[in-house]
Amino acid sequence: MRIAQVAPLQESVPPHKYGGTERVVSYLTEELVRAGADVTLFASGDSCTRAELDPICERALRLDPRRPDPRAPTMRLLERVARRAREFDVVHFHIDYLHFPLCRALGLRQLTTLHGRLDIREYQAVYDEFADMPVVSISLAQRRPLPQAQFVGNVYHGLPLDLYRFEPEPDDYLAFIGRVSPEKRVDRAVAIARRLGMRLRVAAKIDRPERAYYEREIADLFADPLVEYVGEIGEADKGAFLGKARCLLFPVDWPEPFGLAMIEAMACGTPVVAFRCGSVPEVVDEGVTGYCVDSVEAAVAATARAAELDRRRCRERFERRFSAERMAREYLRLYGALAEDRGPVAA
Which InterPro entries match (predicted)? Predict the structure, then answer.
């Protein structure tokens, strides 16, 4: 099967440091190649893949010191895909809804994985207009705001089984990984650590739009001697950071679409204490891979209990539910259904 993967250009595939969508695109692409598919990846030129790479821009937009207007390379991306569309059995987009008019005009065999939150008012009109576009959710919770969308599948993210090493003996600290932003609630993580008198290590990026929030709400919290801010980390450092943690704190305050950090921790055998938002109850197996909570007080109690969970069972549950092989297999079934149900790509 000839498959195109169309990635966002903001980060490379895989990203050099933070980046959820591009990391998943990488895991999926490499697993599809391993399974024997003929895959072309449309992405930034600094991406690394065993698939054919069609580079749209020289480097990831976020890391480009010239700070280019993202609209221009995205236009080039759509045009490049349109020119090559007849080469593929299925085109798989990961760029929200920007390609919908193009796909309709060309009659492409395509589907779109929606990676972000969908409870945005303007999306209602988009999906009213493009209710014929086949889309895939990454959790059932993610779907709720858009019942009119044509969901053809729900595929949880997956990781290569050899990406992170199981760590049976953690150190005595709690971990937070992600972004410093209002919806990620690192302030809650600090409050939990303080209540327990435990160290908290924070691996997070601070985007320019969030700098004012950091200075106003978070900087003073990071001055606490219990808190160590290690900054934004890449793949090479993530395994040790998560694996040596007693517990991952995931204190989100938004409709989390999936939460890749949760399964990254589980892959190391590290349990998760997460606030019950969005996908969290679908991803966390209560009492096995962690606990779902509704308040800081409940999180404190759950974090204290998390040390009693069997880390090997946590790893085993990850292997059963969240492997890249399982993710690729489910997408291949969707690609096959699309190829059977529709005619050839329009000229």
Answer: Glyco_trans_1 (IPR001296), Glyco_trans_4-like_N (IPR028098)
pLDDT tens digits, residue range 31-56?
A: 999 999 999 999 999 999 999 999 99
Of the candidates 167, 162, 254, the one whose C-alpha atom is nearest the C-alpha of residue 175 is 167
Query: pTM, whole model, 2 decimals?
Result: 0.93
3 state SS of 64:
coil
301 Cβ neighbours under 8 A, 6+ residues apart: none
Helix-strand-coil split of the chain, %, nearest 5:
40, 20, 40
d(CA 27, CA 113): 14
SS3 state at 175: strand
Question: Which CATH code is given to the segment(s) 2-158+323-341?
Answer: 3.40.50.2000
Q: Which amino acid is at 152?
A: V
Sorting pLDDT into bands at 50, 70 and 90, what band is 235?
A: confident
Phi, psi of 107 (to 5 degrees): 65, 40
Q: Dmax over Cα atoms in the chain, in whole Å?
A: 65
Alpha helices in 156-234 (DSSP H): 186-196, 211-213, 219-222
Length of the chain counted residue by residue: 347
Query: In 3D, which of 53, 251, 235, 264 has the Cα closest to residue 157?
Result: 264
In degrees to the nearest 10, what's the CA dihedral of 179, 180, 184, 186? 120
pLDDT (tens digit per residue) in 62-101: 877 777 788 999 999 999 999 999 999 999 999 999 999 9
Helix axes 235-243, 260-267, angle to 10 degrees: 70
